[in-house]
Amino acid sequence: QFPLGRRLPCDIYWHGVSFHDNNIFSGQVNKFPGMMETVRKITLSRAMRTMQDLFPLEYNFYPRSWILPEELPLFVAEVRMMKDRNPSWKPTFIVKPDGGCQGDGIYLIKDPSDIRLTGSIQSRPAVVQEYICKPLLVDKLKFDIRLYVLLKSLEPLEIYIAKDGLSRFCTEPYQEPTLKNLHQVFMHLTNYSLNIHSGNFIHSDSVNTGSKRTFSSILCRLSSRGADVKKLWSDIISLVIKTIIALTPELKVYYQSDIPAGKPGPTCFQILGFDILLMKNLKPILLEVNANPSMRIEHEQELSPGVFENVPSPVDEEVKVAVIRDTLRLVDPQKKKRKDTHPAVPPKLPPCALLCCRCPSVEQEASEELPEAALPSLCLKQVFPKYAKHFSYLRLVDRVAALFIRFLGVKGTTKLGPTGFRTFIRNCKLSNSNFSMAAVDILYIDITRRWNSMGIDHKESGMCLQAFVEAFFCLAQRKYKSLPLHEQVASLIELCECRLAAVRGKRLLWGCG
Ligand code: ADP
């Protein structure tokens, strides 16, 4: 720890909250630039909405959400329409303030006209989301899952998932929401930070009891009841990969802004906390992604009135220590060196080691030679690029972001100016007699003004990535009218990539000439 500031460069920087530190030119940082902004409730909902527009079935693991205040009229209209279509539909909605955490400011409503909603949204932007009314219950209690995911690299994309996670329980038996029980947080919200204040909270002294258990203990229970646990895991892996695919475009914009290509800089990795709810039918639903999941392995206990002590929490320790240990093993800068100096085969042990594998002197010898040999096997399982071929077709917005970054021009910016947008249109030859450069300027101004009025980031002027994505979808719809949206977008991306490759080819040729 460097409480007074760091003087020497490091191999690995373990920051508490965010990436920011201007003096890092090498090594690896445990945070990505912009991750906190990218996983905020509103930004995450926007990114998921874009993916739902393109691939509605693939992204149906995220509840239908609206962004307040700007989408209040849309929320009201859509709910009215759905109720008209299906009068027996009696929905509940959960309102979550943007940037909130630990259940802070969250409440449930039955109808968009609820006075709490209309009263609060002007003061604090929020996401309102369809409430999942039929969660899976264990011991009659609602619970959610915290899974740890390591984003080891953005380019190329590398994702690892921890084999075990935490299950955090409510402390009041669950009932489907009614006007009478809507306000009962110990029944509806699974946050540890809330439920710890309930008289019913049980500090777990083993991994399969109490108000916080390991996810594996829940899986064991489900498996003994005959549930298809393998399918559940594969659904969870798919949810994690798809969510990260939705986040990468924005992350890449922040990344190139903080660590411009061609300049010396560190690489990044990050442990993310995925909060997942299981529905009664075992379908996993994404609640949110945490950029700074708590890695505490102790909890406070009141020994006598007013006297608190930190005591170890076996469940947290079981799950979190393995995540940190394996993250360090995976990003270990010495590992490559060791691989080069040691052959891939395990060290030759004396014959006695085969018979007596717990012989301390032999274990020590082996671990001195290859420290990893003494550690338990990895709890972090690689899922990407391992399963890349099943998901690559979803990475369309990533390719749109690559076009956006290419035309940003000035290094260090995250927004595209009008000239950059015009150059994009010109180089990709997207204007014609039906779509003049004047119309291009109007499109730029309209969309940019609307996005900037939403008040997300006033630091820079210009077109943000989401606005560019909207403009790109608009252009794709104009050009390929009869296709479904994802095909329209894919076709326009291919056209742009192809035309830009031709421009580049010509430039190279002129360069040679
Ligand atoms: P926070 O960051 O404040 O914890 P979350 O999005 O995680 O916000 O929501 C808090 C809790 O509310 C979750 O742990 C979960 O128990 C419950 N919750 C959130 N969204 C939903 C939803 N759409 N359906 C059902 N329960 C939800």
Structural class, from helix and strand content? alpha+beta
Largest sheet: 8 strands, antiparallel
**Fraction of residues in β-strands:** 15-25%
- Total strand count, please? 17
Distance between the termini: 56 Å
CATH architecture group name of the domain at 35-63 and 132-301 and 310-330 = 2-Layer Sandwich
Indicate the percent of residues in helices.
Answer: 40-55%
- CATH superfamily caption of the domain at 35-63 and 132-301 and 310-330: ATP-grasp fold, B domain
Uncertain runs: 344-367
How many helices? The count is: 18
What is the CATH T-level topology of the domain at 35-63 and 132-301 and 310-330? D-amino Acid Aminotransferase, Chain A, domain 1
Bound molecules: adenosine-5'-diphosphate
In terms of quaternary structure, the protein is single chain
- What is Rg? 26 Å
Query: How would you sum up the global shape?
Result: globular
CATH class of the domain at 35-63 and 132-301 and 310-330: Alpha Beta
Overall mean pLDDT stands at 88
Protein name: TTL11 polyglutamylase
GO molecular function: ATP binding; tubulin binding; tubulin-glutamic acid ligase activity
InterPro entries: TTL/TTLL_fam (IPR004344)
Keywords: ATP-binding, Ligase, Nucleotide-binding
Any key phrases for this structure?
ATP-binding, alpha+beta, binds adenosine-5'-diphosphate, tubulin-glutamic acid ligase activity, D-amino Acid Aminotransferase, Chain A, domain 1, tubulin binding, ligase
Q: Gist?
A:
With about 525 residues, this protein is an alpha+beta fold. It has helices at about 35-40, 40-55, 70-85, 115-120, 185-190, 190-195, 215-225, 230-260, 315-330, 335-340, 350-355, 360-370, 390, 395-405, 420-425, 435-455, 465-480, 485-510, and strands at about 10-15, 30, 65-70, 95, 105-110, 125-130, 135-140, 140-155, 160, 165-170, 210-215, 265-270, 270-280, 285-290, 300-305, 305-310, 380-385.
